[in-house]
Design goal:
alpha/beta, disordered C terminus, 442 residues, single chain, 3-stranded antiparallel sheet, 5-stranded parallel sheet
Length: 442
């Protein structure tokens, strides 16, 4: 077993030793794409939404260097007609792009990260196939191996977009990376003869140049449109109910904290990492965002985009906000409008997208807490003041101090909404709901 070629099933062994929610049904979906025109799959999800678990599961299933039959016993895929046909039958190349970018950062070799990635994989291939002449190009090396042996490869690339996220302004490096991926997956004369399938995960969808994807042959499943993979975005409601029963947790409270992502094929999807932490600890808390600082959210909601402040205020009050997602370029720097910011926040998991009415909202209590924290510690001083004054407004309401309440709402109206929205009835309603939301959760 190697570091990149046929890494084995150790990652999935670890997952199976703990509490495991069966997501192996996704394997049957990938099996149907093998060797077809749909063999290239890119799945984008927020951090800690199970992307790496899925990648390790696929490695364990396809990797011909190991025997994973017992690992899948009793799981959904074991009853599928395709289970035996593809189990441990392929050479698998697994690449965790964060490994390469982190190593390059430590060694101060970031400009060479793509070159080093290609070289390391070629070295392993050369050791595994000594009779095939070494090439300096990974696509050419794979092609020669396939032609000499008849073997095709399955690529599993985890965090494919890490280079774009960590090297946001290095366009030359990004373009060299895209060229490598195109050489592997968009070479009409070679790809079909050497690649049986590819499965990429990332936080962002594939980078766009204008309106076109950088790799148009990939079928994408995103937080905007997960399509047939919707139930694998996170935990479904039946899965969460079962976990709550196992661990003696109150389901309705777990739902309030971690539900909120909804798609055509899965109406109620939960943050998987947070649910697992909550049931294991027996305590509801903000687990997902503990893995980040609030800066991740704060940077984007502080951008000076027209209408962004009003959108944040409305969503904090529980309202939905209409957006147009088309112009977003699937990167973190080409942000031209309020809608680009909000679309990015959907991909990062901070907002839920309703495809039917093309709107976004804050999905649950866990994320609402993070928005409040980012706003109160950020530069949106008007909204921050509204939140800080909510306790005073609540006290005046409970004491039935009509004039104080009226004055406070008037101040909130002027504080939270731009002057052009002052006479907008929906704007006033949203401001009142902001205060109400704060009261409810304090």
């Amino acid at each position: 077993m190697g570091n990149y070629l046929n890494i084995g099933n150790a990652g999935f062994v670890s997952a199976r030793k703990g509490t495991y929610v069966d997501k192996t049904g996704m394997i049957s979906f990938i099996n149907r794409t093998l060797g077809t025109a749909d063999k290239l799959t890119c799945v984008s999800r927020p951090r800690r939404f199970g992307k790496s678990f899925a990648a390790k599961m696929l490695c364990a299933y396809y990797d011909k260097s190991c025997d994973s039959r017992k690992l899948f016993d009793g799981l959904e895929i074991s009853g599928d007609a395709s289970f035996e046909k593809y189990l441990n039958k392929y050479n698998v190349i697994y690449l965790d792009i964060t490994e390469f970018t982190s190593d390059a950062f430590v060694k101060r070799e970031m400009p060479n990260v793509v070159i080093n990635l290609e070289r390391k994989v070629i070295d392993e291939l050369g050791a595994a196939y000594p009779d095939v002449a070494r090439q300096d190009s990974l696509p050419n090396m794979l092609y020669d191996i396939s032609e000499a042996t008849g073997h095709k490869f399955i690529f599993i690339i985890d965090e494919w977009d890490a280079l774009f996220r960590e090297n946001r302004t290095d366009e030359f490096l990004q373009e060299s990376y895209i060229r490598l991926l195109r050489g592997l997956f968009k070479n009409s004369g070679k790809t079909d003869r050497m690649i049986e399938a590819a499965y990429m995960t990332g936080i962002l969808p594939i980078k766009k140049y204008g309106t076109q994807s950088a790799m148009t042959d990939f079928r994408e499943y995103t937080m905007l449109a997960p399509r047939r993979l919707a139930e694998y975005v996170g935990f479904t409601e039946p899965e969460v109910k079962e976990l709550c029963g196992q661990y003696g947790m109150e389901f309705e409270e777990v739902r309030r904290w971690y539900d909120g992502y909804s798609f055509h094929r899965a109406k109620s999807i939960y943050n998987p990492s947070s649910v697992m932490e909550a049931v294991k600890n027996g305590e509801l808390a903000n687990y997902w965002t503990q893995s980040e600082t609030y800066e991740s959210l704060k940077i984007y909601i502080e951008m000076d985009e027209d209408g962004l402040k009003e959108a944040v205020a409305q969503m904090l009050g529980g309202s939905k906000v209409k957006i147009d997602t088309i112009s977003f370029q699937n990167d973190m720097i080409t942000i031209r409008s309020r809608d680009d910011v909000l679309t990015l926040l959907v991909h990062l998991g901070y907002l839920s997208y309703d495809i039917d009415d093309k709107s976004v909202s804050i999905p649950n209590e866990e994320i609402r807490e993070e928005f409040v924290r980012a706003v109160t510690m950020g530069k949106h001083t008007e909204i921050a003041k509204l939140i800080r004054d909510s306790d005073q407004l609540l006290e005046a309401t409970l004491n039935m101090e009509e004039e104080t309440v009226a004055a406070a709402i008037e101040e909130a109206h002027k504080t939270g909404i731009a002057p052009t929205f002052y006479n907008n009835e929906q704007a006033l309603r949203s401001i009142i709901r902001v205060a109400s939301a704060v009261w409810t959760n304090t």
